[in-house]
What does this fold into?
Amino acid sequence: ELLVSDEGFEQLLAAYFEEHHKIWYEDIAKNFTEEMLKIYEYIGVDKNIEKPVPVIKKLANRQSDVWYDEFIEETKWLKNKPLFEALVNGNTRYALIQRAGRVFQDKGERRWFEMPANRFKKLKYYLFRIKKKTEKLFMN
It folds into this structure.
């Protein structure tokens, strides 16, 4: 849902605002002054004004890194390397396409296994082999 929302917002910006400046929280938290100077330049504020002082600070610590690593490890669909790289690079359109493709593929596989002819295919195969072997034993 977040990918769809991000992509929708990107399309809205592209449709109604010819130029827009992307701001990422991670970038501001990492280097507040430099990012704010980029924003000042974009909106046309004089660069010679006093450098902005950070009013936010990054709250992440080692525990946050552990949670992040656990989330990445436990989230099956993030194992898709192109999807993960698209998310890391902020390419929401490609990430949305990758995620949707994976969801459709999973649903297709699930439907295939739920079909009556395929549901017990392995069991039917083994029963058939047992039947043939027992017939061969009793025929000889």
